[in-house]
Design a protein that fits this description.
elongated, about 30% helix
Length: about 160
């Protein structure tokens, strides 16, 4: 509730402008949600050259999988990784440029990343401006399934309470 209230107060600062692009806390909230629930939980790559990882030599053309879901929950990069804490992205706590990659990274990153962030800012902004969200489904009851995209096995129920 405190995160939602802080986000709501930040949204009020822009008035009816609907320009959600420069809201620092909103971006942090979205990034933290994407850290915990990356849309694509893993990606595959083919090594372009021989590579050594943890003293193990992997030859060029080896197919590897990067499990983004696990990477984003590594306590080495994200202390208390299961906690929803948007301040990680405000206080610049990320210790490695590739520790946070919800849209992949490098030459093969998602070409729709900027559009997706714009869509998320607009949707989150309009929803939080007009409604208080009250969870009905408890977080501990959500079962995550890792298909091509990350999703919940069952519906996640949320009550939308109109704001005055």
């Amino acid at each position: 509730e405190d995160v939602q209230q802080k986000l709501y107060e930040e949204i009020l600062t822009i008035g009816d402008d609907m320009n959600y692009n420069n809201l620092t806390y909103m971006d942090a909230v979205i990034k933290e949600a994407l850290r915990l629930y990356p849309p694509v939980p893993f990606i595959g790559r083919v090594l372009g050259e021989d590579t050594i990882i943890d003293n193990v030599k992997l030859p060029a053309k080896t197919i590897i999988h990067i499990v983004i879901f696990m990477l984003h929950c590594d306590p080495k990069y994200f202390p208390d990784p299961e906690k929803f804490d948007p301040n990680r992205f405000i206080n610049n706590e990320i210790k490695h440029p590739f520790a946070y990659v919800p849209f992949s990274a490098g030459q093969r990153n998602c070409i729709g990343q900027k559009f997706a962030m714009m869509e998320l800012r607009t949707a989150v902004g309009e929803i939080i401006k007009n409604f208080k969200l009250v969870p009905i489904t408890k977080p501990e009851d959500v079962v995550i399934i890792s298909d091509l995209i990350l999703r919940a096995r069952d519906p996640i129920r949320v009550k939308f309470v109109p704001r005055n």
